[in-house]
From TrEMBL:
Name by which UniProt lists this protein: DUF2922 domain-containing protein
InterPro entries linked: DUF2922
Pfam family, one: DUF2922
Length: 71
């Protein structure tokens, strides 16, 4: 399953992650940047370390799980 991971910096200088399941691909970087700017402008989220103050990064993360058969 793929996720779009948005990383922000909070008032304490720590990284805060938010994940969005099943992002539209290919990812439009301008749209992601605009969405992150809007989250900051609206002060839409907070964290235990205070408000979000800056964008840090965004990335697509894919996790592949392969079961191991037990006998």
């Amino acid at each position: 399953m793929k996720k779009l991971e948005l990383k922000f910096t909070n008032e304490d200088g720590k990284t805060v992650n938010y994940s969005i399941d099943q992002p539209v691909e290919p990812v439009d970087t301008a749209t992601v940047n605009a969405a992150m700017d809007e989250i900051l402008q609206q002060n839409a989220f907070t964290s235990s370390g205070g408000d979000l103050v800056a964008k840090k990064s965004a990335r697509i993360v894919e996790r592949i799980v392969e079961e191991v058969e037990m006998q």
